[in-house]
Amino acid sequence: MSRKITKDQVLITLLRKNSADERVAALLLSFSSRNARRKLSATHFRLPMSRLDIGNYLSLTVETVSRVLSRMQKLEILDMPGVSNLANVAG
To answer: Above 90 in pLDDT, residue 7?
Structure first.
């Protein structure tokens, strides 16, 4: 229960203080870390949430999430082939 409370407090802080880019980056890093803990690839993974779900979770519009992901792709931080939910996080 204390882990859940701590996670909720981190999310509240994240939503209050960080930019959209920082919020999305933190979420992607969270997915990456979770995969690494499970002995899965931390750099190649399928996003477990749609852009709409990510936006709802981070209190962002789906358009903002899409712009952030596109910007990350242009900067070669992220590679998302096609329109699928596949992500390749630069490592």
So the answer is: no
Nearest to 65 by CA among 42, 47, 46, 43: 47
Half-sphere exposure of 1 (CA within 13 A, CB side): 0
Q: For each of the domains in the chain, give its residue range(s) and CATH number, in order of start.
A: 2-89 (1.10.10.10)
Looking at the DSSP bridge assignments, the partners of residue 79 are: 88
Tens-place pLDDT, residues 32-57: 988 999 999 998 888 889 999 999 98
Compute the Cα dihedral for 83, 67, 8, 39 and give only its sign: positive
Nearest Cα to 32, choosing from 23, 43, 21? 43
Residue 80 burial (CB < 10 Å; 0-12/13-18/19+)? middle
Q: What is the pTM of this model?
A: 0.73
Geometric angle at alpha carbon 60, from 59 and 64, rounded to 5°: 170
